[in-house]
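Subject line: Sequence and fold of a protein, written as structure tokens
Area: Proteins and the way their chains fold up in space.
Start of record: The labelled sequence and token lines come straight after this line.
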Amino acid sequence: MKNSSHPSPAKASTEDPRFAQAVQAYEQALKAMQAQKFDRAKPLFDKVIASGPKELVDRALVHLNICNQQLSRVQNIFANCEEHYDYAVSLMNMGDYVGAREHLELILKEDPKLDFVWYGLSVLDCLTGRAQESLQHLGEAIRLNPGNRLQARNDSDFRNMADDPRFTELIYPEGTV
């Protein structure tokens, strides 16, 4: 006869909120990894490893190792930030806006002072109809390098913004018209 005062291990693990959180983080990490979003999957696997049950920790360690390998491979593909930026622009030109955004944001994580990357992100935002973000990113590009103001005036990629007074104010501040 079974002692009814002690829950079975399976029942206890499903009722444990930490176990449920670890499973949820593990599932989210797997989805991110399957979508090749290794930078998103990595912290989720780390969370599982830090607080999850042993059976999930072992699996998460294997997947984390794969994420680390993939991330280091991507970083080693490009000799420098400029080469990485050129790749992101090529993705943008091919219409892979999601991939281009991921690479531009990855470059900015490494070095947020690269004005040309902010400029590229601004162009991408403009092309994808994100006017507010485009203006913010262009403003940062101009702050870091005022020469971007002149470039934006002559850049056909900003034609969608040509009639936006906020864009005009940004590229023609008072006294420069």
In short: The chain is about 75% helix and 0% strand. Residues 1-12 have pLDDT under 50 and may be disordered.
